[in-house]
Amino acid sequence: MSFRLKTIVGIALVEGTLLLVLVLNSLNILRNASDEAISNYASTSSKLFATSIENAILSLDLATIEAFVQAALSNRDITYVRVKAQNTILAEGGESSALARPFTADSSMRSVNDGIFDTRANIDEGGVHYGSVELGISVARMSEFMQQARSETTILALTEMVLVAIFSLILGTYLTRQLLRLENASKTIAAGEVGLQITVHGSDELARTTMAFNHMSRKLKDLYDRIENDHARLHSIIETVHDGIITIDDRGTIESANGAAGRIFGYECDELVGNNINILIPPSYQHEHNGYIRKHVNGSSAHIMNRLRTVDGIRRNGETFPLEIVINEMFIDNSHKFVGALRDVSAAKEASKKLRKSEALKSSIYNAALDA
Q1: In the chain, what percentage of residues exceed pLDDT 90?
Q2: What is the pLDDT of residue 181?
Q3: From residue 261, how far is each of 50, 247, 319, 328 by CA, in Å?
């Protein structure tokens, strides 16, 4: 997951959590307020109606009671009205299905399961109970209002989430733009183009990170230049010496060879690199040489290190010739390496041989002269 996507998701999760808490809390407050409102409305309506028909009940004026019932039913929120004296129904009206159900007073909206809030008001006078009024208040409009409030709140929350996602995308793009430059610059440096500098924008943490990257890049460039100069100097020295210099790994593979080594054996330097050192050793000595390498890598043979020895080499044309060689070891990145400095002594050997022959000839002539 990218940093930009993490930024967007993180902000969206925080915002979504806060919105969810806010929406649920708002709906709960709204539900409690509507519950209280419908309870107060039902209680007030039933008490006012009971007060209005109290005299008619006391005088058993049925016509007046019926008129009050019809007048109450003209209110669209009132579903039914029933007026009772003791257990006798004096008048009733409204939805027949509601009148047919047994009356059970509701205490809140949560207890309403038929869409009608049932309420009752008693008619008492001088401590004597004369009757009661039962009203059914429709909660359809209140339920519709609550549903609309939930829908609008949900739409508002979703709209805000979309806006948060858009602004998070803009913010994430702004924050990651400089990080993307740093990533691309790092890849460029890794590819070998050291010293690359990035334009710094602003003075925030990302800007300071960019400045630190530029400083590191300059230091790497300086170090790289010094290494290159040292390498060029060392290469120049190695190429100008008359002795051959060859490096091999612990498997006997040639990793580098200078020009003198190539000339001694009749190869170009590039032709030697990657081949096994055995191409420069006569077949009769190859097994012995491989054994030296294995023993030394295993730590059981060190007598050939840093000692001048005379061995036979083989040129590209198959000619065998004498070599003087000194072998040293080194470790690079925990890998065993061997460096051999070698010199073709075939000319010296031939001169020495001629000198011995000349000395022998002189001695023979001298001895012959003495005998004469």
Answers
A1: 19
A2: 83
A3: 124, 11, 15, 16
